[in-house]
Amino acid sequence: MATKSKAKAAEKEPKKSSYSAESITVLEGLEPVRKRPGMYIGTTGPEGLHHLIWEVFDNSRDEAMGGFASDIEVALLPGNRVRVVDNGRGIPVDVHKQTKVSALETVMTTLHAGGKFGGDGYKVSGGLHGVGVSVVNALSTWLRVEVHRDGGAYMQEYARGKRKAAVKKIGSSKLHGTIVTFEADPQIFPTIEYDWNKVVSHLRQQAYLVKALRITILDARGVDAELVEDSAAFYLRDLGLEVPSMTFCFEGGLRSLVKFHNEFQKPIHKNIFYVEKEIDKVQVEVALQYVDDISARVTAFANNTYNSEGGTHITGFKTALTRTLNNFGKKNDLVKNGDDTFTGEDVLEGLTAVISVKLQEIQFEGQTKAKLGSVEARGAVETVFGEAFTNFLEEHPDEARSIIGKVVLALKARKAAKAAKDSVLRKGALEGFALPGKLADCQSKDPAESELFVVEGDSAGGSSKQGRDRRTQAILPLRGKILNVERARLDKMLSSEQVKNLVLALGTAIGDTFNLENLRYHKIIIATDADVDGAHIRTLLLTLMYRYFRPVVDGGFLYIAQPPLYKIKRGKEIVYAYSDAERNKILGKDAQKIQEIEEVEESAPVAEAEEEAPEKGLPAQAGRTAKTPKVSIQRYKGLGEMNAEELWETTMDPARRVLKRVMIEDAQEADKVFDILMGTDVPSRKSFIQSNAKLANLDI
């Protein structure tokens, strides 16, 4: 018995583990940043790479927000280097009491070190994490800081976050400010390529947020590297370089930003509402204007940092907006039915607004600062905006009536849309929630492995139904071009059979009852022909998905199929080419011969031939000859021209197909492009097409 008891006791004892104090790794200095860069900049992809520029720029911008700087220059340099200059106070270079080294070195090599945690360094700043410039230093293969202050010029260089030498004085200077030049580390970033348009877009936005701040951007990547490196110029623009450059300076602040957003819209009231006021140590700034549109464009900033996910300041703004318009409408008998009450959805329709708050002690939800969490911001915005907007409506009665009229139309449209939506759902309920008759559904009920191909026309639908994998692939053919939903309300949309079929097939519902969890397919694949009509249908579908199924796009569930343009047969070998360049690469030396023959007779496929043939009706010695290569090439104009086997091999087989995932990197820019291309402003669309004509890849 005793032996058995000991055995049982032994079984209950925990197994010995190698987990001990020696297992705990302590990372010093900037090592944590290099070990886990995603924790600090979100990603090591393009967004994270550009985030390095934003972090350095934010330090200069914070100087401007404090009234210490008025001019910032950002330059893209040869060798993937970036240079940011400001005319602020300059980072202190005296010895820091706690770290026993220069304050400059402390800031550049220590996380959570800076002038934003107390004292009188900054009244407000972009954030209180204090990791910005030190993180850039850690993730750069090389970085140099040059400081001008107190009559001297000082410099220090670093390699992957570690100093090369102590701070040294390099001369005297009558200037003041900081110059930071860095080179991102290829060990961290797989691809180092800065997007000029992305840089310009971000910095333009920042210029709107700090009145009278001058921001200059230079693309000097094409100049001689030695010219830039050897230059002692404080600002590179002083060198007179003939390079792409942009300069932004806006006295109007947020008013100018609202005007920019509404550049291609028709305002329903002339005056842009604006208020700027500080309450309870929270500085609130709001600008708004209603336009003749059904979409809302509400942009939020906290300490000049863009909050893509909103936050407490947006909550306060929406609450005050809804309450103010309801009170004003009922008080002035502008709402005929006393039972009608505006909802948040009603008052947002057609609204362009920018909300900016500045706080001394600020809290974001996450290091990327996408959402503001400071509770005091809600009450401050609600109070300041509510009072000012009430006064605006009372002082501008004509504009107030236009705004209320716009909201009343939105209310009526919401009720009509609800009736139409209920009708669709009610019809579905009566039919046992039957899916559209045109839909050839897949057997799998698991959304993670299910795919929906939205194809153009019955011909392509027939081929794809025959060639698909029935277990995981569903087919929904569309007949003709769907409704342009850019300016169509929900009730009109749901009257379109094509749109209604797609809504039912997706399973998410639409509008306020939309639920992404009910999405029936985790790959929605748009497969249209490679011609102008196909491109138009694809654009209409993308507009629908962007405006009414945005979470599907944001979730990465939307794709565009890439069917081949050519089928090339060389003997028994069959190869598909997805572009002219790929076709020429496959054909090699035969490509030129194919092009010569196509110039003579474009319509007929090139048949196989073994030798030169004389022209018909002429003697061989007198006739012109054409060397026909031993290949045949077929040009596809549409999916309907492919048989089921070809369609499976090229477009539907997961092992061989090419898909492009639709992603939205810049929602504001995407919104503006959809407005231009699909809206009613013909002159702006004409201008856009003329400006971008060279970028188009047309197949007419």
Folded structure, characterized:
It is a single chain. This protein is α+β, with helices and mostly antiparallel strands and 700 residues long. It is built from 23 helices and 22 strands. Helix 4 (46-65) packs parallel to helix 7 (196-209) and helix 14 packs across helix 21 (644-652). The N and C termini lie far apart (92 Å).
Q: Using DSSP, what is the number of strands?
A: 22
Beta-strand level of the residues, as a percent range? Answer: 15-25%
Structural class: alpha+beta
Do you know the CATH architecture of the largest domain?
2-Layer Sandwich
Terminal residue distance: 92 Å
| Global shape | flat
Give the % helix.
Answer: 25-40%
CATH topology of the largest domain: Heat Shock Protein 90
In this structure, how is the largest beta sheet organized?
Answer: 9 strands, mixed
Total number of distinct structural domains:
3
**Mean pLDDT across every amino acid position:** 81
- The CATH superfamily of the largest domain appears as Histidine kinase-like ATPase, C-terminal domain
Q: Uncertain runs with pLDDT below 50, 5 residues or more?
A: 1-12, 17-27, 115-121, 126-130, 429-433, 599-625
Count of discrete alpha- or pi-helical segments spanning 4 or more residues = 23
Radius of gyration: 31 Å
Question: So what's the CATH class of the largest domain?
Answer: Alpha Beta
